[in-house]
Amino acid sequence: MCTIPDVTDKLSSMISPSLPSFPRRFPTGLLFLSFLLTSSMASCQPTPEHKTQMVHPSPFIHPLFTFDLDEWNKLKSQMPLKAHQDFEPFLDDMAQVLSENQNLILVDKKNPLPEEWKPTELLSLDSYSQLIKNKTGMQLDRPALESLMNMVQAAQNEGITLLISSAYRSYNYQEKLFQYYVQQDGESRAEHYSARPGTSQHQLGTCVDFGSITNDFVKTTAGQWLHENGSRFGWSLSYPQGAQEKTGYMWESWHWRYIGPEATAMQKNYFEDSQQDFLEFWSLHEERFRSAWKDSELENDPAPKERGE
To answer: How many structural domains does the chain have?
Structure first.
């Protein structure tokens, strides 16, 4: 590439000093000068590597999802308020929860599991001597058990013992348990603290009742440690104090469900640390977010709601 001074230099070197004697009005001279100028400027055209490359902006609002701005604006009213203010961190966190692919099925009085539903890989807690249990024969689904092992070890490192009192319950077991409480306290009262068969989170194989199975548990060092640290390991309190109208059950400080650390982080950040609110949102919107998610590694992996069916 050359500049205007380069053109001047070329013309100066090619035109003889004797040219002033050449008739200035002679057309051939003008044509000659025009030819020189045209050929010199032609050599100044930018080479291909100097051409400006046009960059086309992505139509998507986030690199991990196929939402465009119009589509997101339609969804925004259904999103948590904090996601309205800054959607990029929200979608970052959503991608993390999707990649974790945990069992996030909503199970409550309005959303029961079928009688035949069973976790995909139940493992016996009896095989793990480091777990402190108040009875034999308990089981958990593998992801929950693996996390529980890590959490129990972390608690033991601080001199805390987490006593495991209840874990997986089958549909049939829950049916017998609920009928027992109905006989003890009547159906109306039993429904406040016991689940009908199919509506118990214990059927998922991802829930544990700790300690004495009373709300005295929250006053113990184990209960306080779990309240402060459980979410780090992916465990969430299912039935918190003051949430009976929302969850359908009385406060149970001992009942914790494994949903995964990415999900507990999203629950805290966007749903005021309410497991019920988070799982209701997930139940409504998981399919839409999963279909818009660009990650291809889990494309053929079953969605959490399909596990065990």
So the answer is: 2
Question: pLDDT tens digits, residue range 23-43?
Answer: 444 454 444 445 444 454 445
Give the pLDDT confidence of 69-115 residue by residue, as tens digits.
899 999 989 999 999 878 999 999 999 999 998 999 999 999 999 99
> Do residues 163 and 39 both lie within one domain?
no
Tokens of 307: 């596990």
φ, ψ dihedrals at 307, nearest 5°: -65, 135
Q: Which residues pair with 37 in a beta bridge?
A: none
> Is 197 within a domain?
yes
Mark 263-276 as b/e (b = at least 16 C-beta within 10 Å): bbbbbebbbeebbb
Q: H/E element holding 291?
A: helix 275-292
The answer to whether position 72 is within a domain reads no
Determine if residue 159 is left, alpha or beta; phi over 0 gives left, psi from -120 to 50 gives alpha, anything else beta.
left
Averaged pLDDT, 266-278: 97
**285-304 pLDDT tens trace:** 999 999 999 874 444 444 44
Q: Is the pLDDT of residue 117 over 50?
A: yes
Give exposure, 91-121, as e/b (b: 16+ Cβ within 10 Å).
bebbbbbbebbbbbbbbbeeebbeeebbbee
Residue 67: phi, psi to the nearest 5? -85, 125
What is residue 53's predicted lDDT score, i.e. its pLDDT? Answer: 54
* Edge-to-edge order in the sheet of strand 252-258: 132-133, 163-166, 207-210, 252-258, 235-239
- Whether 23 maps to a domain, the answer reads no
Residue 218 contacts residue 227 (beta carbons within 8 Å) = yes
| Residue 147 and residue 40 in one domain | no
Treating both helix axes as pointing N-terminal to C-terminal, what angle do 261-270 and 87-100 enclose, rounded to 10 degrees? 150
Say whether both 123 and 268 belong to one domain. Answer: yes
Q: Which domain holds residue 247?
A: 98-306
Handedness of CA 104, 271, 193, 164 (dihedral sign): positive
